Amino acid sequence: MFFSKDIGIDLGTANTLVYMKGRGIIIREPSVVAVDIRTDKVCCVGQEAKEVIGRTPESVVTVRPLRDGVIADFDITISMLEDLIRRAAGTGFLVRPRVVICVPSGVTGVERRAVRDVTEQAGARKVLVIEEPMAAALGAGLPVAEPTASMIVDIGGGTSEVAVISLGGIVASRSVRVGGDKFDAAIVSYIRRNFNLLIGEPTAERIKIEIGSAVPLDGEGETELSTEVKGRNLLTGLPQSITVTSQQIRQALADPLSEVVEAVRYTLERTPPDLSADIIDRGIILTGGGALLRGIDRLIHEATHMPVKIAENPLDCVAVGAGLVLDNLDAMADALSEEDVPRYDSAQS
């Protein structure tokens, strides 16, 4: 019997996850593509491409086709999605898959259409678009269909999505183009400015993961951290190694983190009073890779005086939420934009 393998895609600036109905998350790859510019041929996609960033010959370039949560390179995004859809759905099926794909809540109509178009050209039969904060809330297990407020803060690679959700819809929201990429760029800039040392994005990401923090680490049994950083001295042009501390990286991250906190405050200020009372009781839920930054829950708690919790699997929430939409297309019609509501029986293959 020939049937489609319907999939949900978290098309992220940093990582792309693919959820297959009945199987869960089956693909988890960096959103990176290596291309041979002499032939315009894609050399590799995902982790394999990420590992060669900054190490390729002149004829091969590594491209991140999404920037700030939106498509920056149309053709390469199609190539990446083609590869992922083929790996997920296989080639032995006559019916192409339906795809639920997530977009930031702040995208324009043109950007939303671009996501739909590239997904269709990459091999999808039907494309349904859902906003990331709604998918993240579903994946985090929040009761989004109930008449009570659920507040989600999804800090991804390119954007941070803040939303208050009630009765299956977004009541108040804010999307800022600040996320893990801006954190990394802030670290690169800080080290260049203070140490005259040039480092690459992979090194900045490693520093963020190893010693990055949003609040001081001198309490609750924690101690400040340090790590060795290697790069190129801008004055001598020679390789150099230095040691940086978590206090210094915290200074580097202060500005982008303040934008995330301001987005949370903005959303809370525009939440109806009755729903604000629910948030005091239920708290704010953090998802996305940024939720793993040490102390970010404490930072938001200190700024809002609200309870703040990190979701159980913050990296997976958006993809899992997209999968839940696949499983409940009729019930989730309100979460999809009007043009995305399926016009057929959701039990069809």
What's this, in brief?
The chain has 349 residues and is an alpha+beta fold. The protein has helices spanning 47-50, 74-89, 109-121, 132-139, 180-195, 201-211, 246-269, 273-282, 296-304, 317-327; strands spanning 7-11, 15-20, 24-30, 33-36, 41-45, 60-63, 66-67, 70-71, 98-103, 126-131, 150-155, 160-166, 169-176, 197-198, 226-233, 239-245, 284-287, 308-310. It starts with 6 loop residues before the first strand and ends in a 22-residue tail after the last helix.
What keyword list fits this structure?
26% strand; 10 helices; disordered C terminus; single chain; 349 residues; 5-stranded mixed β-sheet; 18 strands; 35% helix; alpha+beta
Could you characterize what this model shows?
Helix 3 (109-121) links the parallel strand 9 (98-103) and strand 10 (126-131). It is flat and about 65 Å long. Mean pLDDT is 88; it is low at 341-349. Helices cover 35% and strands 26% of the residues. It is built from ten helices and 18 strands. A five-stranded mixed beta sheet has the order 3-2-1-9-10, with helices on both faces. It has 349 residues and is of the alpha+beta class.
How much of the sequence lies in strands comes to 25-35%
* Strand element count: 18
Structural class: alpha+beta
Helix content: 25-40%
Q: pLDDT under 50 segments (min length 5)?
A: 341-349
Distance between the termini: 11 Å
* Overall pLDDT level: 88
In which order are the strands of the major sheet placed? 3-2-1-9-10
What is the gyration radius calculated from CA atoms? Answer: 21 Å
* Shape type: flat
Q: Give a short account of the largest sheet.
A: 5 strands, mixed
Number of helical segments with 4 or more residues? 10
